[in-house]
Amino acid sequence: MTEQGMETMQTKYWKASPNAEAFDPAILEAAEYLRSGRLVAFPTETVYGLGANALSTEAVEKIFQAKGRPSDNPLIVHIADPGQLDDLVLEYDAPVKQLIEAFWPGPLTLVLPVRPGAVSPRVTAGLSTIAVRMPDHPLALHLIRAAGCPVAAPSANRSGKPSPTAAEHVRNDLDGRIDGILDGGHSGVGLESTVVEWADGKVWILRPGGITPEDIRRLGLAVELDASLQSTGGDSSDAASSFDGVKEAGGPTPRSPGMKYRHYAPKGMLSIVQGDNPQKVSAYIQERIDEAKAKGEKTGILAFEEHLPYYRADVVLSCGSQDDLSSAGKLLYDALREFDREGVSYILAEGFREDGLGLAVMNRLHKAAGGRLIHI
Ligand code: AMP
Ligand code: MG
């Protein structure tokens, strides 16, 4: 079915408290939807996911249609118990067990050799590996348990849009394109899971996320960033425009297929300004913004809470405190949506230091900016 040809359907809405009991009628009905091959969005501790029965090719196919997601970008399978992992993957080494014990349930996705035939081949995009995680959200766990099947679930947004952290964001993007939305209030940290693979005696980070390299090193394991992440600085010259699901030109072939796609792009032109001297960064940003405004642009600035008083623009938004990035992911996605709502056409963002959660947040910001980074 083509993008335009997608029929609209009635999207069912359920509301449930994040602390609802396992037998809450909303959860049971949503689970029945999933089991029978329909698409249901649900909250997790990272962002809202768009779930489908991972055993059914027909169901999984609908995810790609509803999101407009490139079909060679595999999906993460969500389970409700670590024991379910053995049905999905071949045997794995002791360090993988260590990661599971330390971080599940939680925002860590493991890429492991897939047990042949365990899920629809559309889930893995034909790879010999499968990505699996156990979310740390009571509604998600109840739902997956009640559905009785592994649940493939990417973020519940149209491809190329910011990840949703509230049911309302899902509704804006996917109303009429999916079967149901389980509204459990705001999702958690707002940053997607960290995707890792155990290979050559190391934990390879394929996508940075809520679990930081430092968190993993604390277990005594060696951690390495995938080649695709080592140059987030990148070259801004090839990034004049950013389209949904467009492949980035050049660069090393990533081990995580999704890393080659641009994501989370706001409609306005966003660039990141980074430098060691915060005063210089602020002065530069204000100067560029004033110039843009004089040319008739509607301007936006995304800055650390501490720096907000220094800025004047049509829309000035906070990405949180420099000293606590725990909500920076959610603030970033909310801000990108807000800039779009306000029709902002020219946006400058302060860059993050790439340690701790800053690595993941900067990675998302970098994608949102289509690689446009100004170093001063
Ligand atoms: P999303 O569901 O959009 O949050 O993205 C899922 C991420 O997991 C993408 O970056 C995928 O490329 C990655 N992923 C899923 N399955 C695999 C796999 N088998 N091997 C490597 N990366 C994977
Ligand atoms: Mg996504």
UniProtKB/TrEMBL annotation:
Compositional bias annotation for Low complexity: 231-244
Coarse class of the protein's main subcellular location: cytoplasm
InterPro entries (UniProt xref): DHBP_synth_RibB-like_a/b_dom, Sua5-like_dom, Sua5/YwlC_C, Sua5_C, T(6)A37_SUA5, TC-AMP_synthase_SUA5
Residue span, YrdC-like domain: 24-211
Classification via PROSITE patterns: YRDC
Cross-referenced Gene3D superfamilies: DHBP synthase, Threonylcarbamoyl-AMP synthase, C-terminal domain
Record field: catalytic activity: L-threonine + hydrogencarbonate + ATP = L-threonylcarbamoyladenylate + diphosphate + H2O
Top EC class for this record: transferase
EC number, as in UniProt: 2.7.7.87
Keywords from the UniProt entry: ATP-binding, Cytoplasm, Nucleotide-binding, Nucleotidyltransferase, Transferase, tRNA processing
Gene Ontology MF terms in the entry: L-threonylcarbamoyladenylate synthase
Subcellular localization(s) per the UniProt record: Cytoplasm
Ranges where the record places region Disordered: 230-259
Function: Required for the formation of a threonylcarbamoyl group on adenosine at position 37 (t(6)A37) in tRNAs that read codons beginning with adenine.
Family, per entry: Belongs to the SUA5 family.
Protein name: Threonylcarbamoyl-AMP synthase
Source organism (scientific name): Ferviditalea candida
